[in-house]
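Subject — a protein and its fold
Encoding — discrete vocabulary of local shapes:
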Amino acid sequence: MSSIANNSRLKKSVLAWLALLDRDTKADIIVYLTESLKTKSGKTESKKIDALFGAWKNEVSAEEMIIDVKKARTFNRERETF
């Protein structure tokens, strides 16, 4: 499976999409892309996916959460008649 960076189909699709835009919008996109290249690795620290890990702080263990979810389940086996 190829990565997004090397996917020629994606590049062609983006270029086709860009062809539909007016000059001012294209210029805005160029400015945005240029600024994104100036930041570390093209990403700001807050936009990295790693920043999302460990965001949920809770004293309850995963096993306790599973037990709570299972206890909260309700089953209704009644069938509706037509």
